Structures are given as C-alpha cells and as structure tokens.
Amino acid sequence: MKSLVALLVSLVSFAAGAWTNGALWYDTNGHVVNAHGGGVLTHKGRFYLYGEHKIYSGRGNRAHAGVHMYSSTDLETWRDEGLVLQVEDKPGSDIEDGCILERPKIVHCVKTGKFVMFFHLELKGRGYNAARTGIAVADKVTGPYAFQRSLRPNAGKWPVEIPEKERNEATLRKFYEAERPWGGKAQIWGAHFNGGQMSRDMTVYVDRDAKAYHVFASENNSTLHVCELTDDYLDYTGRWTRIAALDWTEAPAICFKNGWYYLIGSGCTGWRPNAARSYRAKSIMGPWERLGNPAKGVNPKTKYGQEITWGGQSNYILELADGRALALFDLWNPKNQIDARLVWLPIDFAADNTISITWRDEYSLKGASASSGKR
Ligand code: GAL
Predict the structure, then answer these.
(1) d(CA 25, CA 321)
(2) Is 115 helix (H, G, I), strand (E, B) or coil?
C-alpha cells in the first residue's frame, strides 16, 4: 500500500512538471528507470539518458546486463530504448557477464557521425585491479554499441608538464609511489609508464572546438588525468596531463560557463558518500584550482547534508542549450544497487566564478528543450 501511494505521488509530481530527487523514477512503460553512473546526451531534439543497468542484491555491483538507455524530449518522460551495450556470455571476453562496467559516457563525433562510448572496465574475477578503459561504437545514438577494445591509456607517453630534457628514467623513479592519506603507499604514474595508466572513475568532455577529452581517476585513484582524444574520439593523441594531483578525487564531471571550466567530483570512499569537491580552470588541460565543496543544504527526508553530498556521488553535468547546467548524482545502495536513486540539481554559477549546488526535493526544468542541443 505504502509503495502504491509513493508511486501515485511520484506520478502526480511528474504530471506537475517536476522530478523528485531520490525517489524512484518511472519510464513510460511503468518500469523503474535503471541507468546509474552514466550521463545524458543531447541529440536531434531528444535527451538520451544512459547508465549502468543494475540488478538486485550485492550482485548489482557487477555488470550482468550492460548499459541501459532512455530518451525524452522534456527530461521528465522517459521512453525505454533498451540495453544499448550488452555484457557477453563468451568466457574470457573483456566485457564478460560478471565484469565491472561503470560510469559509461557517450559522445557524438560529428566528424565521423559515430557515437562513441567510453567506460571504466574491470575484468571479471579481478576485483578492481585491472583499472582499464573500455571503448564501444555505434552508428545510431540508441545503438547497438559494438565493443571495440579495452586498454590502459597512454603507455609510453609523458605528461605534457614534464619538459623534454627531463624525460628519463630518473624522473619516472620520482613518480613511482605516493603516501596514501589513510596509510600505506600507492603506485603512481611513473610505475605505469610502460604498461599504460590506470583508469577508473571517468567522464568524457567534448569542448567547443569539438576536441574531446577523457578524464579519469588514475594512479590508484589519487590523481585525475585529462587526456586529449583523436579527431574520431576512438584513440588518444598522447597529449595528457595530471590534475588534482594526490587529491584523491573520484567521480569527475565537467562543464564550461563564462570562460571557466568547472569540475566536480567526490573523495575516495568507495560506495560510501563523502563531501563533494570542485575545481575551476581556464584551460581544460589546467592548471585547475581547488574551490571546495559546492554542495549546500540538507535532504529533509534522510537528514543527509552537504558533508556527505546528501548521500550521493557526482556522475555527470548536463549542459543545456539555454546556458543552465544540471549536476547529476547517484545515491548508491551497494547492498541492493537496483535501488540506487538519481538526484539532479541545477548548478548555481556565482559572480566570483565559483559554483554551488543546493539540495531541492523537487526540480522542474520548465522550458528546457533538446531541440537546440549544445552539441
Ligand atoms: C566509487 C566509484 C564507483 C565504484 C565504487 C566501488 O568510489 O565512484 O563508480 O567504482 O567506488 O567501490
């Protein structure tokens, strides 16, 4: 009975033109929207929401289905577009059922016409040790996305900030290990120079000049890497830089506003929520400046406040054609990930070029249209 009432309440609030943060969201078939850690692509008059399809219980922490997509013209009414990338049954496949496939991001390459999906991939049975990037491609936004390959990026490539004359073994040695704030040591980029850099939590950002960047937590999650992609978005140019070095930032999401790039992210506590953080930069390749926790306010239902990002973790920033930006968060539920919830809140851009994001129980994006989508 209680859940029937909750369903009716959420349907009524949808009809009223608002979504309820932290509530179950339903598609037009009446099924719960199942897309986590993903993002929203704007294409030809529609919004495409996609993310990890989660299943019941702790098994939902592994990928058993793939990437699920929904589409909408108003960001409120979601049509099921199905599983656009599916895990494979074939033993030994990189994306075998039971692997970890997280934080997919889809971008449209105008030059080739293809849709390219990047994701964080952990090979089946190896926990979080593989730390790889997966790449899949489709001809249509709704897929099917064909898995191409997985890799650790930038093997043998130097970060741009290391001058030519210092590109030697002694420099690599200086960047072999760093202290973990909670004790012990972690290998950093010098140790992975030959084999390729670790890549976990991630986003892909397409800039105004159509250049795309893969931004991921590397070096055992201690440091973010910003890596330029080739014009077809299928490979790396080898131009990369370290940002937020040893800040232990995960869950990166990026937007651009009034001459500044902004990055929001989380600390490094796995599925447990922590305080969000933000950065800004004049160039996506840096330098990035630390700005602090953009989250404000408390979710009155759970009493979770800004010190734990209302129980959530950032996953994407949707830049709307009218200049607004929505920050997308997941409220994880590692014991039953199918019950993870979504939180979408507008970013407030202040006159001093800082950002804040204030908790709202509901939000309505009246007038948002995908027809003049940013890209
Ligand atoms: C989080 C990360 C998630 C997932 C999780 C596993 O910090 O953002 O995507 O990898 O750790 O514990």
Answers:
(1) 24
(2) strand
Instruction: Give me ligand 1 centre to Cα 333, in Å.
Output: 11
- The bridge status of strand 79-86 relative to strand 66-72 is antiparallel
Residue 46: C-alpha distances to residues 72, 114, 176, 285, 372 (Å):
6, 17, 46, 30, 10
Both structure tokens of 148: 């191409």
| Cα(159)–Cα(287) distance, integer angstroms | 13
In this prediction, residue 315 has a pLDDT band, given cuts at 50, 70 and 90, of very high
Choose among 131, 141, 137, 101: nearest CA to 119.
101
Tokens for 32, please give them: 């719960």
Whole-angstrom Cα distance, residue 243 to residue 83? 34
Q: How far apart are CA 103 and CA 330, in angstroms?
A: 11
Say whether pTM exceeds 0.85: yes
Kindly state if the Cβ of 121 falls inside 6 Å of ligand 1: no
Average pLDDT over residues 327-343: 97
Q: Which of 26, 101, 105 is nearest to 66 (CA)?
A: 101
Cβ atoms of residues 208 and 256 within 8 Å: yes
Q: Map residue 174 onto helix, strand or coil.
A: helix
Is the pLDDT assigned to residue 11 strictly greater than 80? no
- Report the atom number in ligand 1 closest to the C-alpha of 103: 9
Quote the CA–CA distance of 256 and 239 in Å, as a whole number. Answer: 21
* Terminal-residue alpha carbon distance, the chain: 44
Rounded to whole angstroms, how far apart are CA atoms 188 and 179? 10
All structural domains of the chain: 2-372 (2.115.10.20)
Among residues 161, 192, 160, 163, the alpha carbon closest in space to that of 175 is found at 192
The preferred substitution site among 201, 248, 329 for testing ligand 1, maximizing ligand atoms within 8 Å of CB, is 201
**Mutation choice for ligand 1 from 250, 277, 314, 331, CB with most ligand atoms inside 8 A:** 250
Atom of ligand 1 nearest to the CA of 221: 7
Q: Residue 136 belongs to what H/E stretch?
A: strand 132-138
Ligand 1 closest atom vs CA 313: 8
